[in-house]
Amino acid sequence: MRHLLIAMLPLPRPSVFVPTLTRVSFKLLCVEENQCPIVSRGSPGKAWLWASSSPATVLTVVLSSSCMQDPSSEESVLLSYEMVGPGAGSRLHWFLLMWPKVQLNLSSFVLQVTAKTAFLFILPQYNVSVPAADSETVHYHYGPKDLVTILFYIFITIILHAVVQEYILDKISKRLHLSKVKHSKFNESGQLVVFHLSSVIWCFYVVVTEGYLTNPRSLWEDYPHVYLPFQVKFFYLCQLAYWLHALPELYFQKVRKEEIPRQLQYICLYLVHIAGAYLLNLSRLGLILLLLQYSTEFLFHMARLFYFADENNERLFSAWAAVFGITRLFILTLAVLAIGFGLARVENQAFDPEKGNFNTLLCRLCVLLLVCAAQAWLMWRFIHSQLRHWREYWNEQSAKRRVPAAPRLPARLLKRESGYHENGVVKAENGTSSRTKKLKSP
Questions:
Q1: Is the pTM higher than 0.85?
Q2: Are 196 and 294 in contact (CB under 8 A)?
Q3: CA distance 231 to 174
Q4: What are the two backbone dihedrals, phi and then psi, of residue 421, each rounded to the nearest 5 degrees?
Q5: Do 137 and 25 fall into the same domain?
Q6: Domain span at residue 162?
Q7: Residues 13 and 67 both lie in one domain
Q8: How many structural domains comprise the chain?
Q9: Is 16 left (phi over 0), alpha (psi -120 to 50) or beta?
Q10: Residue ranges of region Disordered (predicted)?
C-alpha cells in the first residue's frame, strides 16, 4: 500500500538559490481515514532527494514507501535529514505526529483536509451525471458556489493581465514613443487583442465540438438548457471573471478620468449580456453571439494597434467598418430567430425558475428588447464616430485648398543691348565694339 507524507523542514538560509542534494532517513507513518496514527514496522528507510533550499528556509520533503499497519503503536514519526553540499554539516531530527485525515491525494497532490475547498475554487461546481446512449456523461448547472470559482479566476486573470502588460505591451510601447493618451489606448487595445483572440479561438472550438454551428435548431430546441458541458460552463465562468477583473484594473492601470465612463459602458454591457445568457439558460445562443462580437472587436483593436504604429495605416479601419455593420445584422437576425420564433414554438411555455425555465412572452420580449437596444446603441455610436471622422477629413482637405499660394514675383526684364555677344563682350553689328574708344593725347 503506497502512501505519501509531506514534511516542512527549516533549513539554514543559503547565500544563493542553489539546488541541494539531501539524504533523508525516516520512519513512515501510515495514515488511513477513521483510524489512529500508526507507524510502519521495520527499520527506517533512506532516500536521496533533490530539493531547492530557497530563501524561504523551508524544504518540502515528499516521502513514498510501502508500509504496514500497526494499530497498537502510537509513536510519532521519526524523521531526520542530512544535507550534502553547501549546507553540509547541519543535521536535524524532527518528530512529526500525523493525524488521521492528513493523507495526500496521489492524483492531485492535495491534502484531503483542503481538497474540497481547493476544488471549490478551481473546478466548476454542481456536476450531475446525465444518462446517455452508451454511458453516463457529466454535465453542470449553475448555483451560488460559482461565485467562489469566479473569484479565484479573477485573481488568475489579474496575474495574466500583468504578465501581458509587463512582457509584451511595455516592451512594444517603449519602441513606439507614444504620448500619454495614445499610450493608454495602446495598452487597452493590446490587452483586448490578446483576450479577444483567445476567446474567439476558444469559443469557436466549443461551438464546433458541441455541434451548435451545424445544427442551428439546437439554439432553442430542448429549452431550458439547464445542464451544460464542462467546457461551456468553464467558458462562461472565465468570461465573467475577465470582465469583473476589468473593474479593478481601471484603478491599477491608472486610466484617465475621461476614459473611465467609456470603458465602464462596454464592461457593464458585456457583464449584463454574458450573465443574462448564463442565468437564463441561453448559453448556446450566447456562445454564437459572443463569437460574432469578439471577432469584430478583435479586428477593431488590431486596427488601432497598427494605427499607433503607423498613423497612415488605416486600411484595417475600413475593413472593420464593413464588418461591423454586417455583424450587427447577423446578431439581430439570430436573436430574433432564436428568441422571437424558436422559443415561441417550444411546447414548454412556463415561468419556473427552479427548473430554469424562463420561456414566457414577457421574458422573451425583455431579452429581445435588451439585445436590440444594445445593438442600436452600438450602431448609433458607430455612425456618429464615422460622421465625425469624415467631417474632420473634409475639413482638413478644405483647409488645404483655402491656403493662398505664395505670390509669385514678376520676372525681371533683361535689357539686351543691340549687337551680338562674343566672349562676353557686346559688339556692334558692323564688328566694332560698342564702347567708346579713348583718344590718345599727342
A1: no
A2: yes
A3: 38
A4: -100, 140
A5: no
A6: 127-399
A7: yes
A8: 2
A9: beta
A10: 414-442
